[in-house]
Design goal:
about 350 residues, Elongation Factor Tu (Ef-tu), domain 3, Helix Hairpins, alpha+beta, elongated, six-stranded antiparallel barrel
Length: about 350
């Protein structure tokens, strides 16, 4: 009986060891099927995304040249106006009186000058008398011209076609010289702009002339063309951002100041990047990642550390690590380990 037990246990141990030998996989013998794709190298500029408020580059505060009481205001806020349109007037009574006085003084001075000029030419007046009358004439002429100029600006006219943004006064109010009456915004298609604040990192990439697209909620399906017209040379101390200005081409669409817009700028300064499918990444931590590439023998793989520039939908932009790589592993990458044996099946071109 003891002999039978020994023989049975020995047989059982042999079977167990035999089974273990059959199931144990080895990295030296296991071959993993994979697929690969080519690494695409492109000069690329990552778009700069921002937002801002659309406005007219030509916005003007209109005012009277002289003080006076407002007689009439002929435009309301939000109203469309045309260049040369009368917008406001002040009571001209006092200015007319000054103009009449200046005109009278000038005419009297001109008469006196003609009289003394004739006497001087006949030798009946001195050179000093002639010069005094001439200086008096010139002085009164200047006063007369100023009075005429002031009379001309007792009315305010639109300097451009556009929209009334603000009206600052009411009829009957007394206004001092230079007090703003209206603020108007040009609606000429070449005057629409948008100002943005961008980071110092993005500021180094942007140049005057770089193209952009602008989208607004009012025209959701329209991407307006734009370009960078100004780039600030100093940071805004309150925000730490750098201001840039873009000019917008509205095409046949109507724009107004105050529209909030989303902006995508395409810098002309590019960087050489390698693009691979996102499924090629086996590890990713911030800007660090890992991929597998086939070795030269096409039978084993190498694990390669890479620097991720950005991930866009189903592709990854690599800034470092794949400069010398022709292809990366896609399908099957998650089953690999360094120096794993592979067989490439149906490689993508």
């Amino acid at each position: 009986m003891k002999i039978f037990k020994i023989i049975f246990c020995s047989s059982l141990l042999s079977v167990v060891l035999s089974c273990q030998d059959q199931k144990k996989p080895t990295s030296e013998t296991e071959v993993i099927p994979i697929k690969t794709t080519k690494v695409v190298t492109k000069n690329y500029a990552s778009p700069i995304l921002s937002s801002g408020v659309i406005s007219s580059e030509v916005e003007t505060n209109l005012s009277f040249k002289t003080a006076g009481y407002i007689d009439g205001l002929y435009a309301k806020e939000g109203e469309a106006i045309k260049k040369g349109q009368l917008l406001a007037t002040i009571n001209p009574t006092e200015i007319n009186a000054r103009l009449a006085t200046a005109k009278s003084d000038y005419e009297m001075a001109a008469h006196d000058f003609e009289r003394i000029k004739n006497l001087y030419e006949e030798g009946a007046a001195t050179r000093e008398e002639f010069d005094q009358k001439k200086a008096n004439l010139n002085s009164n002429l200047q006063h007369y011209n100023i009075a005429k100029f002031n009379r001309k600006y007792t009315s305010v006219y639109a300097n451009t076609s556009g929209t009334v943004m603000n009206r600052f006064v009411n009829e009957g109010e007394f206004v001092s010289a230079g007090t703003s009456v209206y603020r108007i915004s040009s609606t000429d298609k070449s005057d629409w702009v948008i100002e943005l604040g961008i980071s110092d990192k993005d500021w180094t990439k942007v140049k005057v002339g770089d193209t952009a697209t602008v989208t607004i909620d009012a025209y959701k399906q329209v991407a307006f063309k734009a370009f960078v017209s100004e780039v600030g040379s100093a940071a805004d101390p309150s925000t730490g951002t750098f201001k840039i200005k873009l000019k917008i081409d509205p095409g046949h669409h109507k724009l107004v100041s105050g529209l909030v817009a989303s902006v995508k700028i395409f810098p002309s300064q590019t960087t050489k990047l390698q693009f691979i499918p996102s499924i090629s990444l086996t590890e990713a931590n911030g800007y660090d990642g890992s991929v597998y590439i086939p070795k030269g023998d096409k039978k084993t793989v190498e694990k390669r550390k890479v620097k991720i520039a950005f991930i866009d939908k189903h592709q990854v932009a690599i800034s470092a690590g794949l400069e010398d790589a022709g292809e990366v592993v896609t399908d099957g990458a998650s089953y690999l380990s360094p120096d794993a044996r592979i067989i490439i099946k149906n490689s993508n071109p």
